[in-house]
Amino acid sequence: MKDLTEGREVTVILRFAVPMLIGNIFQQMYTMVDSIIVGRGVGKEALAAVGASFPIIFLMVSLVIGITMGAAVMLSQYFGAKDYVSLKKTIDTAYIFLFLAALLITGLGILLSGPILRGLKVPDEVFPLAKQYLNIMFAGMVFLFGYNTVSAVLRGLGDSKNPLYFLIIATILNIFLDLLFVLVFRWGVAGAAWATVLSQGVSLLAGILYMQRSTHEVLHIHLKRIRFDKEIFRTMLRIGLPSGLQQSLVSLGFIALTRIVTPFGTNVIAGYTAASRLDSFAIMPAMTLSVAISTFVGQNLGAGKLERVMKGYLSTLLFAGGIAAAITAVMVLFKVKLIQIFNADPAVVRIGAEYLVIVSAFYVVFTGMFITGGVLRGAGDTLTQMFITLCALWFIRIPASAFLSSHIGTNGIWWGIPAGWVVGFSISFVYFLGGRWKRKVVTAAPTSSAPAVAASK
């Protein structure tokens, strides 16, 4: 566990963020490798199937993942306040909730995958492949939830390195299994899905083994003693539900965008899939630093150190903005070669390259939006962030993409994406300057009386 309430702000944040960034790169390689291998080894229909499946999976898990973010906020604040009793209750409650949620989503996902794909008007040549991929991914949902829960617990307590180690092992396994199942056994998209599920299972197992062997008692899982705390869960919902709803709104936005894309045909779906995979890598530094500053803000507000929060925010904003500008240059200069990694079809490459040129020009704006949102989440002000997302996504991004696509074609879809980012950052920054988020902290700064439970034994 790592205390983020001492030391130079930007240094502390970066040291905490870098292992997470590396971990997120490896995590993105799950979907990246799936897309590359099926796109090059099976065909553009298979690439389109994987791409059409992603927003559906995101929708089904987004609400629960958001509540997990609420748990992480509580963990960081309780840790900053040295309240280890509440810390342990939060961990236990999160485990129970997320296990039951995983079982529920598995059933719903398998039941509804077909009707949702039909509702998205996925082309007939893509539909059976997408349905097969989805059903296998939903069957392994307990592994995905389990790993993300273990990672959230460790990161909330300041440990960003060990989740990285678990993920590196799993990613290497995923690549090996992808090559084996898809190219050797010729299982197609089903092989890619099984490779991902099995690899996530390994990540979860590694995380559990580490926590059980840790010297920190709060990390140990005792099945006979684990308890669900209703009050903790209510607080978790209060903080996490807005984030969950925000994630759901984002995932529904992805589905709405996919619904706009699919009528343009397989080439456009494949090009969009390839470009969006690259997009996921490009925005990863901003998203990772957003998570890091959220934990940093939570711990420092819990410790009553507001000045550190402000310094950390400004330093992170400048650093992340510089990274975003550099990534934009890479995307624009190498757009064609990057898309060709996934599929060499000229129509697919042209569409994907057009996406990259338009969207990457606004990575700096996206970065500002996410870093500012990370501060609000760390303070526990997740409801406001939900409304900002609602406005930027549903009042700007989706309507703009739908309107412009009917007038200027596929490029109109891509222009709607940065339009939403501009509005989202503008509202977030104005709200941040207002300062109301400072009053949303879960726990007060620590007093001289300390809890009776030790952090470790």
Short synopsis of the structure:
This protein is an all-alpha fold. The protein is built from 16 helices and no strands. Helix content is 81%, strand content 0%.
Describe this structure in words.
With 457 residues, the chain is mostly helical. The chain has one domain. α3 runs parallel beside α8.
Give the radius of gyration.
21 Å
Whole-number count of domains: 1
> What percent strand?
under 5%
Instruction: List how many beta strands DSSP finds.
Output: 0
Which helices and strands occur, and which strands form pairs?
Layout (H helix, E strand, L loop, with lengths): L8 H33 L2 H37 L3 H36 L7 H13 L1 H16 L4 H24 L4 H25 L16 H32 L4 H17 L1 H19 L3 H28 L1 H6 L5 H15 L2 H16 L3 H27 L1 H25 L23
Brief descriptors of the model:
disordered C terminus; 0% strand; globular; mainly alpha; 457 residues; 16 helices
